[in-house]
Amino acid sequence: MIKKQLYTPGPTEVPPETLAALAKPVLHHRKEEFKKLYFSAVSNLGSIFKSSGEIFILTSSGTGAMEAAVNNFTSPGDKALVVVSGKFGERWEELLETFGVETEVLNYEWGSSAAPEDIKNKLKGRDDIKAVFATLVETSTGTLHPIKEIAEIVENTPASFIVDAVSGLGCDVIKTDEWGIDAVVSGSQKALMTPPGLGFVCVNEKAKNIYRDNDRKNYYWDFKKASARLENSQTPYTPAVNLIAGLDQSLRMINSEGIENVWERHKMLSEAARAAMDKLGLEVFSESPARGLTAIKIPEGKSFIVKELKERFGIVAAGGQAHLKGKIARLGHMGYADKSDILKLIAAAGLILEDFSGLSAALKAANEIFKKYAE
Ligand SMILES: Cc1ncc(COP(=O)(O)O)c(C=O)c1O
Q1: What whole-number distance in Å separates Cα of residue 146 and Cα of residue 315?
Q2: Domain end position, chosen among 257, 274, 306
């Protein structure tokens, strides 16, 4: 038997308590029990988004929530600035173009993170740019973008700021209200420890006014309808009731640990992973590594790493996407992940590479990080 474990940067492992909650009898979505559950899930999400704004839970994956944001916050013919440094920045660009928005793209090399100065320069004197779209963590490269700094810049312009935090929410720091982000999009299957199938959009007052005044035609993704229903802890259409029950359980676990502690745990895990990989001769790919995943360059002649992790040790990691296929491996440690998961990963990588002195140094390096955080 090989015990499989997801080390992919989404979907991720789901705690047993959440699996049990998912298996509970189906509630009717117009009855009191569901309203209570929905209210709880939305409130719990608020603590994680760090926002007192509206939060819509959508029956969709993260991309559906991105599409809903584009549909509700833009109109055909609008101009938008998009930060792109990987596959998910490109997704904003593709979605905006699909829905008739003219895009100006700030392209960065994959693995690099955005320079806030560039956004400042692009927006200077530009009243015609309606919105800026960016990504908290570019999952295709494991890169964190400086969202707080970009938000500060956008806040002083007429544009709104919309952030994809599908793989950052719940592991990297994001403070929606305090940083002045107008809308944040996320999904259930990453650091929120829930199976795929739910998308979220968190909306502040400015963004609320945008979708209220927006005349773009929308049906399923119409935030005006969603907002009217939300007042009564309801959704416009039948929601994914059991996923929401699972989500609420996972969110309770996150909030009982405390989101700041959860961020800190991910910081520790990512530092330990990077320190250990370095000792094994595996170079980190990103110049600004995220907390929820570590992307490493695959050394020449070692393309077997991802396959052997899975086949020999049940560690299901991800390879590279697009032109990075075969060039990087993406090791997820987000959500239901702790020190023992990192130790297993280090041990497996050391055995696969048959680098026993590297393995010893890697374990020592990880231990130093763990001890630092225990102080
Ligand atoms: C940063 C980011 N944005 C968007 C998405 C798309 O989400 P989904 O695959 O749930 O549609 C992902 C999924 O990996 C992601 O990592």
Answers
A1: 31
A2: 257
Grouping H, G, I as helix, E, B as strand and the rest as coil, residue 75 is coil
Q: Are residues 243 and 295 in the same domain?
A: no
Checking if the pLDDT of 375 tops 90, the result is: no
**Mean pLDDT, rounded, for 177-189:** 98
Residues 26 and 174 in one domain: yes
pTM: 0.97
Instruction: Indicate which residue's Cα is closest to atom 7 of ligand 1.
Output: 62
Ligand 1 touching residue 166 (CB < 6 A):
yes
Q: Cβ of 323: how many Cβ atoms within 10 Å? A: 8
Residues 179 and 231 in one domain: yes
For residue 324, the enclosing domain spans: 5-9+259-374
What separation in Å is there between the alpha carbon of 166 and the centre of ligand 1?
Answer: 6
- Whether the Cβ atoms of residue 270 and residue 290 lie closer than 8 Å to each other: yes
Mean pLDDT over 5-28 rounds to 98
Q: What percent of the chain has pLDDT over 90?
A: 99
Strand-pair partners of 83: 106
Do 118 and 216 belong to one domain?
yes
Instruction: Please state the rounded mean pLDDT for residues 60-84.
Output: 98
Of 242, 257, 272, the last residue of a domain is 257
Out of 139, 186, 194, mutate this one to test ligand 1's pocket (max ligand atoms within 8 Å of CB): namely 139
Consecutive H or E run containing 205 = helix 205-213
Token output for 281: 């001769």
Contact 84, 107 (CB under 8 A): yes
- Is 208 in the same domain as 231? yes
- The mean pLDDT of the chain is 98
- Determine which residue's CA is closest to atom 12 belonging to ligand 1: 166
User: What tens digit of pLDDT does each residue of 90-144 get?
Assistant: 999 999 999 999 999 999 999 999 999 999 999 999 999 999 999 999 999 999 9
- Same structural domain for residues 140 and 162? yes
pLDDT of residue 329: 98
* Assigned token pair, 125: 């004197």
User: Domain containing 211 — which CATH number?
Assistant: 3.40.640.10
Residue 183: phi and psi, rounded to 5, are: -150, 140
Cis peptide before 11 (omega within 30 of 0): yes
Number of domains present in the structure of the chain: 2
Question: What number of other Cβ atoms are within 10 A of residue 109's Cβ?
Answer: 9
Give the pLDDT score at 155.
Answer: 96
Report which DSSP code applies to 153.
Answer: H
